[in-house]
Amino acid sequence: MEVILYQPDIAGNLGAAMRSCACFGTRLSVVEPCGFPLTAKALRRTALDYGAPETLVRHKSWDDYLDIPHTGRLILFTTKGAKPLSDFVFQPDDRLVFGRESAGVPENVHQAAHARVIIPILGGARSFNLSVSVGIALFEALRQTNGLPKS
Q1: Rounded distance between C-alpha atoms, residue 30 and residue 4, angstroms
Q2: How do residues 113-132 score in pLDDT, each as one tens digit?
């Protein structure tokens, strides 16, 4: 399982996603550019004591990410999703993609996705915060694939 943040806008959301991934033992990739400086110092401050900056995999662009051989499906979480999270069946090597807080992802990322998933919310609500969405989706994906840490 892998979490991919596409050009995140808010450093705090990256930090919270790093914390979730560290707690669940899940890889985290960031597709740049970000809406904030992504320096080693900023990463240490953002992540606090969860997820050392060295464990974050950075990609200069979406094309750079795609150029690396991967296994597993790209599962895009979007407010324009086709399938509710509660109806989606995950596989252990899925890669969960989350878009920018301000703009989501461009059409080429939508086209690259093997599936699009929406986290159901009340009508009239816009969306969850990025880091909340990561936590909800990652928990469900790991739960379904028996990948949750054993207490």
Answers
A1: 6
A2: 999 999 999 988 888 999 99
* Domain boundaries 2-144, corresponding CATH code: 3.40.1280.10
Judged on CB neighbours under 10 Å (0-12, 13-18, 19+), 90 is buried
* 43 and 5 Cβ atoms separated by less than 8 Å: no
**Within the chain, where are the H helices?**
11-24, 40-47, 62-67, 107-112, 130-144
- Per-residue CA distances from 64 to 11, 13, 97 (Å): 22, 23, 15
Q: Which residue in this structure is represented by tokens 């949750």?
A: 148
- Angle at which helix 130-144 crosses helix 11-24, to 10 degrees, equals 20
Annotated domain spans of the chain = 2-144
Q: pTM score > 0.85 for this model?
A: yes
